[in-house]
Fold these 2 entries.
Entry 1:
Amino acid sequence: MTDHTAQIPNQPSFSEQEQIRREKLQALLDQGCSPYSLTSYDVTHSAVQIADGYDELEGKTVSVAGRVLSRRIMGKASFAHLRDASGDIQLYIKRDDVGEEAYNAFKNSDLGDIQGVKGFVFKTRTGEVSIHAQEVTLLSKCLKPLPEKFHGLQDADLRYRQRYLDMIVNPQVRDTFIKRSRIITAIRSFMDARGFLEVDTPILHTLEIGAAARPFQTHHNTLDIDMYLRVETELYLKRLIVGGFDKVYEIGRIFRNEGMSPRHNPEFTTIELYQAYADYQDMMDLAEDMFRSVALEVCGTETLTYQGQEIRLHAPWARLTMAEAVKQYSGIDFFAWENDEQARACLDERHITYEKGATRGDCLPLLFDEYVEKNLIQPTFIMDYPVENSPLAKRKPDDPRLTERFEIFICGSEFGNAFSELNDPIDQRARFVRQVEERRALGGKNAKVDEDYVNALEYGLPPTGGMGIGVDRLIMLLTDSASIRDVLLFPTMKPLG
C-alpha cells in the first residue's frame, strides 16, 4: 500500500518553481489527498467533439479530461483552457457551482496539472464554446513548470530528447505524428487494395550481409551465436515469392550501424514489396501510383510544398538512365570509357575519391553522387545501374554491364530503390561472393554468403519486380519536415553526460 503521507525530500537540484510544486504536493498528501490515486475517469467527449457538436450539445452535461495550459483566476469565478488529445476547450469554473473547497483547490493548482471536468456546454459572450464546470477533479499533479506559452519549446535537441514535453507545448508536433499514422495506414490500404499480402519477417539474422550497410551485432545466449539486426527485409520476402506467394509486402524497422544526419537515423522504417511476373518498369508505375494516392488521401493534393519548393507528384515522372543523367549534368559519357583505367583517370581529373581497383561500373555512381543527385528536385526515376552496385538486380539483356534497377529521387534525395530481381542462382552466388569480399574489406570479418537464399533460388524464383521505399522520407515530404528526427517520435540521441 502506498503511503500518501510520506515526506517528499527537498533536493537542491530543484528549481524554485519545482520546489513550490512539490510543497503543494506535500500539502495534498498531508491532507490524505493523493493526486495519483485515481485509476480512471469517465470521459464522455473530446474537446473537438464538443466544439464541432455544439448545436446538439448546448446545455447538456459532458465530462472531459486533459492538461490545463492557461488560467485566469478571479475572485469567485475563473476561466481556463484544457487540452486533450483532440485540441483545446475553455472552462468556466465558479465557486458557487463547484463548492468552495474544490474552487480553492483549483486556484491552488498549477499549469500542466491534469484535471477532469464535468459540466454543461455553453457559449461565452464572445462566442467561444466552453464548459461551465460543476465538478473539477485533480487527476495527476504536474511537478515541473511548462515552457512559456508564447515561445513554446524551441530547443531542438531538448524537443527530440523529451518528445512528451514537445507534444504538450507544441500541438503541431502531435499533428505531424497523427499524419504519420495516416500515411502508413494509406500505404497499407493502397497495397491491400492491389492484392498484396502483408507479412512479417525476422529482425534477428544469423548472417552479416550487405556490402555497404553495417549491421548492429548482438549475441543469443541460449544458442551461443552472434546475431545481427536486419539491414533489409529483401531476402526473406523473396523466399516467400519462391514459396508461392505472388504479391507480398512488409512495413518494418531497419537497423544500420552507420552515420546520422538530417536524413539518416540508425533505425528507420521502410516498405519493401515484391510482385511475381513483374519487372522494374512495373515497379515504376506502382511507385508513381503509390506516392500520388497517398498524397491525395492524406494531403488532398498531388502538388506539395517542401521546404519552399513546389513538388509535383503527377504522373508521368521523369525517367533517365544513370549514364544519361551523368552525361547531362557533367558532360561525361560512360560509354566512351574503353576500360577501367580511363574511368579512374576521369575521376582523378575531377578529384573524386574511389576505392582501389574501381571499375567503370564503380566510377559511374560516384559521378552521379557528385554532379547529379542534388539537381533532381521533381520526382525522377534514375535507371540502369552498373552491375557492380546492384548485387540483387537482373542484368539488362542488351547490356550485361548494367542492371534493371532504379532509384527514386525527389528534392535531391533518394526515396526508394527497385529491381527486376535477379533469379539466376549461379549469377547470384557469384555476386554474393564479391559482396562478401567487399564487406570484409570494410571490416565485416563475419560476412558470409547467404547459402540458404541461393538454395531457395535453385528451386526457382519467377520473374519478379521488387521495391523498397523509405517511409520516414516519404513522411518528411508529406509533412514538410526538414529533418528525419521531426518525423520520428523518439529519434536516436547521444546520451547526455
Entry 2:
Amino acid sequence: MRIGFDNDKYLKMQSEHILERIKKFDNKLYLEFGGKLFDDFHASRVLPGFMPDSKLKMLLELKEQAEIVFVISAEDIESNKIRGDLGITYDLDVLRLIDAFRNIGLFVGSVCITKYAGQVAADQFSKRLTELGIRAYRHYKIPGYPSDINTIVSDEGYGKNDYIETTRPLVVITAPGPGSGKMATCLSQLYHEHKRGIKAGYAKFETFPIWNLPLKHPVNVAYEAATADLNDVNMIDPFHLEAYGETTVNYNRDVEIFPVLNAMFDQILGESPYKSPTDMGVNMVGNCIVDDEVCREASNQEIIRRYYQGLCDCKRGVGSKETLFKLELIMKQAGLSVENRAVVNAALKREESTGHPAMAIQLDDGTIVTGKTSDLLGAASAVLLNTLKVLGGIEHDLHLVSPNAIEPIQRLKTDYLGSRNPRLHTDEILIALSASAASDSNAELAMVQIPKLKGLEAHSSVLLSSVDEQVFKRLGIHLTSEAKYETENKVYHKR
C-alpha cells in the first residue's frame, strides 16, 4: 500500500502542540475530542499511513498529564441509541472504551451524564457505573441553551451542573458519538474552575475537516460525504479570515456557534482567548501529509464508497433519500462517478458473463481478481480464495480446499443447522482453509497472504450477508456493493 501520511511525525507533532496549548492557560486544559478516539478507520482510509489508533497513541505520549472523561447523553441512554458501526448501545460502548483505555495505561477519571432530566435509564446507568467503581456526574438541560447566555453562564445554568473532579493538566472530553454534549461539558467545567480561581482553557480536537487543506480538497470533501446524514458542510472560516487574512477550513456548526462561544468565554474568563473557530483547534494532521496524490486518490475512493453505502442503506430501509441526494451531489461536485472505481465494472461484467452474483478485488498493483457464485461457494468466498492464490503465486486451477472437505460442511449447514443456503460464507471458507493448511503447503502459503488483503478495494454485484460484510471489514478490505439482492422477488432479506 502506498503511504500518503507520516504517522510517526504526527504522533510527535500533535502531542507537542497540545502541551504548548496547556501552557497558555493555568496548566489546565479541557480538550474536546471530536470523532473517534479509537478505531478511526475513516481517517486511515483517506490518509493512507494514518493508523486507526493514532489518536490513542498520541494520548499515550501524554499519559502522565492526561485523564479521560466520557460524556454520554441521558437522552441517548433512554432511547437505547446504537453505534452504527459496532451495533451496540452508547452506554455499553462507554464501558467498552473505558476497558480499552485502561488496558493501554490511560487514566479514565469519570463519566458525565449530560442532558439529565430524571431519566430512569440514566439513573440505572449511573448506579451501574458507581457499582463498577467509576465516578458518575450529572449535567442538566439548561433552558434557552445555547442562546440565553446570561442564564447559561450563571448559578442557574452551568452552576447547577455537578463539578467534575479532575486531577491532571489535560482533561480529554470524549463520547461514544455525536450530540453527546462534549462542548457544553467543557464550558461548564471552565465556569466551575473559574469560580475556584483556576483559569482553565478550552481547545477542540477534530481531525476533519483539515483546517490547512483547501476547502474542496478530496480529503475534506470525503468528510462531508462521511457526515452527509448530519448535514455538516465544510466552509471557509470567516472569523479567521477577518482576524488574520488567512483562509482556513472549518465546518458549519463550529462557525455558527462561535459567536455564542466567544460571548461565553468573555463572560466566564473575562476575555476570549480565541478570535476564530480555527484558533480553538489543535489539529496537526494536515502538516503530516507526505504524498498529496495518494491521499487525494484514497479520498476519492472513499467518496464513491460513501455513495454506495447510501444506496445500500436506502435499499435496506435504514437510510434516507435526502442523505443519498446529498451524497450524489458531493460525488458530482468532486467530478467523480462509479466509473472511477475499477472493481465496480469488473464485478458487473463477471456477473453478466456468468448470470450469477460476482465479486472483484483490486490489488495494490492494479490487478483485478474476480470470483463467481458456484454450487460450493458464494462469490465473496470465491474471490477471497482467488485473491490469495494470486498473492501467493498459486495456480488458479488448484484447489486450496478440497470439494470433498466442503461438502460435509454444506451438509452440516443444511441438514443440521437449518440453513437454506448450502454455499460457504467467507468465515466458513477461511476456517476450512486454515484446517487444510495443516496438511497442504499451498493452503498454508495462501494463509500467510491474508495480511496483504488489508487496504484492498472490493465490489460485489449484490448485497452481501452481514457475516460476509463483517469478515471483509475485519480483513481491512474496503467493500462496496450494488444496491440489489440476489433474490429480488423476496420481501424479507436476512442480514
